[in-house]
Write a structure and sequence with these properties.
This protein has 526 residues and is of the alpha/beta class. It has helices at 3-7, 12-15, 22-25, 39-43, 62-74, 97-110, 128-137, 180-195, 199-214, 233-245, 249-256, 258-267, 274-282, 288-294, 300-307, 309-312, 318-335, 345-348, 372-382, 429-434, 459-467, 470-484, 507-513; strands at residues 48-55, 77-80, 89-92, 124-127, 316-317, 340-344, 353-354, 357-362, 386-393, 414-423, 444-453, 486-488, 493-495, 500-502. It contains 23 helices and 14 strands. The chain binds uridine 5'-triphosphate (UTP) and manganese (II) ion (MN).
Length: 526
């Protein structure tokens, strides 16, 4: 056995009684030569020049530190007695990254150095396990994640001390995201999961994307997201890959995959859901053209979807939404003076484009909204403004117990899925100017429009429920159920403990019932 191995068995200071206690020797400046360590160069040849190690005495103890230092040097490692700018690896035992970093800061000051501590990646903070494994191998082993302590932050001001409430309805998420590249990538994975009918996975990626969109600044490292709600390992991995390589292989290959592309194309047809699209996909139908050639039977809605495919897949602008709002208001005033029209959905949240336009209709006199949808649709049809319409009755059974509702009136809830024929003349100035010079464009375009009718007593619930976003709505209901023992729908709020419905005339009142701070529509873009 070589002598150094004997050392492991002994208390090092007994073998070297002249050793100065480390506390007194801790000098951080490398230009101070009074305590310069000579043993490294004198007794052992340095084999590994690139790694300049410093063993932190804190928690390790002076004797163990001395022992480990000698052991390392005997194996050709370069180990500094004092911390200096040349140190590349700080090795510590039973310390967190923060503790080591705090020590390095204080050591700097003790040494009369008031400048910044070395900036990462100049120095790696490593756990003792890296050192002992390197001793075992007789060479510096590759640094694994498990060896690494949390990297020090360059600047305390830049520390992303994000505080993110778990429920989207507890946060104000505006349209201005600082992390759109990352959230868009996660949205691709969410959509892919949804198209594969994996709802749980879809929601998980949607939640992760929503947290990224909420953060007050662009993130530069996936580690900054650790501990935040809804960011699971998978999402973190995708984020890390994009931050490091510019893109995620999984996201890129998803976007290129036959199934994703085909399912997107087929569900992009109005009236085609995931199940139908999947059935067609399995029959080898991947595109609209293949569907048209296939002779598959299409229902009335799908026929309209195929006919207006290109228009309906072109985003609706705010100007077009306003023009349609004008048409709907004209129709409503004509058939039921006093009835009200409110823009809902994404446009109410401030979006500048949408896949459709959503409106909520009501009448200040409870009951007068009854049958309104039929009259409005008939009026619009008479004007030649509808390319397609389908009225459905809302099956809201709970309304039996609802505020001022009786079983006999519950089917007053009405909804119309429609496709408007929007003439060029009906567009606002803004919309028209976009088309300047496009002589060949047809004089109208098809636009998907949803009309929903609500009695006045449920108007606030309908307004809240139809403004979205979908994730915001989902979390409102989850919050109500899990945190408040209440059941929220677009019709009512039921307090399960009290066994009664809670009335509300405004969205603010509903938030208050739920014990939530009010979030305006512009903050519901989760
Ligand atoms: P949309 O699907 O129209 O979404 O539903 P959006 O937010 O307006 O976005 P784009 O721009 O059109 O794509 C609007 C809201 O209506 C609710 C949803 O929860 C969503 O928040 N909604 C929609 C329902 O409650 N039931 C439905 O059947 C459809
Ligand atoms: Mn919409």
């Amino acid at each position: 056995m070589r002598p150094i191995l004997d050392d492991r068995l002994r208390a090092p200071e007994k073998r070297n009684p002249t050793m100065v206690p480390l506390k007194r020797r801790r000098v951080v400046s490398s230009c101070d030569s009074s305590t310069s360590d000579v043993s490294n160069t004198n007794n052992n040849r340095i084999k590994f020049q690139q790694q300049v190690l410093f063993l932190l005495e804190r928690k390790m103890g002076s004797s163990r530190r001395a022992f480990l230092t000698r052991l390392g040097r005997s194996k050709g490692f370069r180990i500094e007695e004092r911390f200096s700018e040349s140190v590349t690896h700080v090795i510590s035992e039973n310390n967190s990254g923060d503790e080591v970093w705090a020590w390095l800061n204080s050591a700097q000051e003790e040494g009369g150095h008031h400048g910044q501590p070395p900036a990462p990646p100049a120095v790696r903070l490593l756990d003792i396990s890296w050192y002992t494994e390197s001793m075992h191998e007789g060479r510096p082993v590759e640094i694994q994640d498990r060896h690494t302590l949390q990297e020090p932050q360059q600047n305390a001001e830049e520390l992303p001390l994000f505080s993110v409430p778990s429920y989207a309805c507890q946060r104000s998420t505006t349209l201005h995201s600082h992390n759109l590249l990352l959230s868009d990538a996660l949205s691709v994975l969410a959509q892919s999961a949804e198209l594969a009918e994996d709802e749980g996975r879809g929601v998980a990626f949607r939640r992760a994307a929503a947290v990224l969109n909420f953060l007050p600044k662009a993130i530069s490292a996936a580690e900054h997201l650790r501990g935040l709600p809804s960011l699971g390992e998978h999402s973190l991995r995708v984020v890390q890959e994009i931050l490091e390589d510019g893109s995620s292989r999984e996201v890129e290959s998803t976007k290129q995959s036959d199934q994703y592309r085909a399912m997107k194309a087929l569900t992009g047809i109005f009236g085609v859901g995931v199940k139908t699209a999947h059935r067609w996909f399995k029959l080898g139908i991947h595109t609209l053209a293949q569907l048209e050639d296939s002779g598959q039977a299409l229902n009335h809605t799908q026929q309209a979807g195929v006919q207006h495919y290109s228009d309906l897949n072109q985003p609706v602008t705010k100007a077009e939404a306003d023009a349609i709002g004008h048409l709907v208001e004209t129709a409503v005033v004509a058939v039921s003076p006093g009835a009200q029209v409110t823009l809902i959905g994404g446009f109410r949240r401030g979006k500048v484009t949408g896949h459709d336009v959503d409106f909520l209709l009501t009448h200040p006199e409870e009951g007068k909204e009854d049958g309104l949808i039929f009259k409005v649709v008939a009026w619009l049809e008479a004007q030649g403004l509808l390319l397609y319409q389908k009225i459905t009755k809302n099956s809201y059974l709970e309304s039996k117990e609802g505020p001022s509702r009786s079983a006999s009136t519950m089917d007053r809830f009405e909804r119309c899925f429609s496709i408007f024929r929007l003439d060029q003349e009906e567009r606002s100035e803004e919309g028209r100017s976009l088309d300047d010079g496009k002589e060949t464009q047809k004089a109208w375009r098809a636009v998907r429009v949803d009309l929903v009718v609500s009695p006045k007593s449920q108007y606030a619930f309908a307004l809240l429920g139809w403004t979205g976003s979908k994730l915001f709505e989902r979390d409102l209901r989850r919050w109500a159920g899990h945190e408040r023992s209440m059941s929220l729908s677009s019709h009512a709020l039921f307090d399960i403990k009290q066994g009664k419905h809670l009335r509300a005339d405004s969205e603010e009142e509903i938030f208050a019932h739920l014990g939530l701070d009010y979030i305006p529509p512009s903050g519901r873009n989760a």
